[in-house]
Amino acid sequence: MRLWSVHPRYLDRQALTACWREALLAQAVLNGATRGYTMHPQLARFRSQPSPLQAVGAYLLSIADEAGSRGYRFDRSKVLHLPPRPVLLSLEIGQLDYEWNHLMRKLEVRSPDIATRWAEVLRPDPHPLFTLVEGPVAVWERPGKS
């Protein structure tokens, strides 16, 4: 499971659709609708919120917005808990930088044209759910995985 912290605009088609599916899985886990992935480390940042399902709902909506801007139709009715107001989670700069490097390595192999498009970006914008704060790679990150 990879729930990208980078803005969805940087994701290629494969990463965007995988992120949608995996965020829906995260929503199911947080809603108690599945027994798999319950201990996945990336769920920690949602579980730490006062309303985890609204936080993952906000995450999903931004993914759907990006998909819509590309002409894809992700089914927004699958988002179970819409946040009543904007939700913002903190994201450490070290985590964003780690994920950016990870994504760029994937893009260089899978979608070189997209990697070239973003090659000059030193630090990407974060996913709209996140606000940047100083800090290292997140404690829940598993370097070398995914």
Strand content: 5-15%
**Shape summary:** globular
Number of domains: 1
Helix content: 40-55%
**Average pLDDT figure:** 93
Given helix and strand content, the structural type is mainly alpha
- Total number of beta strands: 2
Q: Calculate the terminal CA-CA distance, rounded to whole Å.
A: 7 Å
Oligomer: single chain
List the helices and strands in order. HHHEHHE
Largest sheet: 2 strands, parallel
Report the total helices: 5
Rg value: 15 Å
In terms of per-residue confidence, which ranges show pLDDT below 50 for 5 or more consecutive residues? none
Q: How are strands sequenced across the largest beta sheet?
A: 1-2
Give me the secondary-structure topology.
Elements: H1 13-30, H2 44-47, H3 52-69, E1 89-92, H4 93-110, H5 112-118, E2 130-133
Parallel strand pairs: 1-2
Pfam family, one: Pyr_excise
Protein name: Pyrimidine dimer DNA glycosylase
Organism: Arthrobacter mobilis
